[in-house]
Amino acid sequence: MSLESLLQQIKPLNEEAMEKAQAHLDDLTKPQGSLGVLEDIAKQLAGIYGEVPKEIPQKAIILMAGDHGVVEEGVSAFPQEVTPQMIINFIHGGAGSNVLARHAGAELVCVDVGVAVDMDDLPGLIKKKVAYGTKNMAKGPAMTRDEAIQAILVGAEVVADAYGRGIRVVGTGEMGIGNTTPSAAIILVMGNLPIEQVVGRGTGINDKQLDVKISAIKKAIEINQPNRDDAIDVLAKIGGLEIAGLAGVCLGAAAQGIPVVIDGFISGAAAVIAGAICPQARPYMIGSHLSVEPGHKFMLEYVGIKPMLMMNFRLGEGTGAALAMTMIDGAVKIYNEMATFSSAGVSEALE
């Protein structure tokens, strides 16, 4: 599969199905629009699938893992060794994303797309390593353009495999120490925003480390001169392998004709890249929550999606996406199980 062939598979939403879904939603025994976001989701699902599903669709959180050379600048509160340690935790089912994925009835799929060490002896981990982490973007490009595209295609391939197993909703998740730094850099460049508005404290860095992080991002942009009119150039120069993989998850979901639930800050950066590569993929995206990372709201605005939940989350890993999947289940049930005015004999004069 090439990137071009992947993008050619992405089609516009089914407007006729959305109109039909809206008519049904308006006939349910409630004031029109009174279930807000649940109605919006049901209508969006109709456009994506061609109809609102009769049953709760099978779900999976696709968690991409990769390391970042920029950690040598001192941008993170945690050492890089935590990335593989957490992957072991995911595989053993003990992370926050595992708990919330189970709560949502979703499978957690963990993918090594760019971890800095080999993890060949870990059963259950999908091994699709493109490189052993990115290079230090404060000293040069994080990766080559070919590596960025290869990682995008990894994400799309994982979605295609999940689709083949019956998965019909995917969510994005990630693991990679230092990954809020490239994510902030991406929205800074793509959104043409002041650096102070988009750089946050990630895993909890102090004021001195925050200054170091801002300095590293400034250096990376100055040295690499990423072209905001070329999202892949931005991704390759100041991005991350797991961000690229998640951009591929977004594009792959659209290509398969299924929705993708966008998690937090790093997933938001991936959605920005995917939406810039192919604007037609944006209507397949569903916003989950608003991260406390300051740049996240700008990412969602860039893509044109709204968060459902305000939970003060900053963990990532797909935790917000997993919770939002329960809202999708609610939308499907409301659409299919709620009585209509005509069937219930209720007056349509509800206000």
TrEMBL record:
The active site is at 317 (proton acceptor). Pfam families: DBI_PRT. GO terms for molecular function: nicotinate-nucleotide-dimethylbenzimidazole phosphoribosyltransferase activity. It catalyses: 5,6-dimethylbenzimidazole + nicotinate beta-D-ribonucleotide = alpha-ribazole 5'-phosphate + nicotinate + H(+). The keyword Glycosyltransferase applies. GO terms for biological process: cobalamin biosynthetic process. Its EC number is 2.4.2.21. Belongs to the CobT family. PANTHER family: NICOTINATE-NUCLEOTIDE--DIMETHYLBENZIMIDAZOLE PHOSPHORIBOSYLTRANSFERASE. HAMAP family: CobT. This is Nicotinate-nucleotide--dimethylbenzimidazole phosphoribosyltransferase.
